[in-house]
Task: structure prediction
Amino acid sequence: MEWIVTEFPSLAAPNRLDVLLEKIVARGEPEKVDGAWLKSVGMKNSNDRSLPKVLEILGFVDSSRVPTQKWTDYRVTKNSRAVLAAAVREGYAPLYRDQPNAHQSSDDDLRDFFRVKSNSDNSKATRMVRTFKKLCALSDLDQIQDAEITPEEHKADTPKSNSAKQVQEPNQTFTQKLHINVQVHISPDSTPEQIDKIFESMAKHLSGRATDT
Result:
């Protein structure tokens, strides 16, 4: 049976995301992102109550609504749009598997996907589309798309191990040296002529030629 996704954000007022993200940058990091925090930063609109769930889907907070590293990274304004873009691609992973350039997809294609995958009616699927489009407008999805590295591509950039360096290149040659230890036992009764013959015979067999006489 095909997996049905039910967690796509469907905000009634997607523009409230602008305010929320501004608060993340301007305010200190809270212990928990709940209704009390929203009120403390002036977000008292009834439509704001569903915003923490969006942050959870994006990975800005964990399941206990405690801010994560993504929250901290987003507060660096020069990185904000890239951080959000990566979070959108991660949070909407099923959509990007179905439509690799989902942020460029038509509203109709997006609505069809959300309606089927979340088993929603047209009205809710339309809110999902608007929420997704708003997140896209607040991030740099086109920039991070080309910069992404798959696990296979990343391996190619990883320094190779010593074992890999042992593979011989086409024009590479190796010099091998052979060391032979020979022990000769000569009887004390041997004459000088016999000793000379012994070493002469050794030279012949080891070097492949007879020594000069």
The chain has a mean pLDDT of 79.
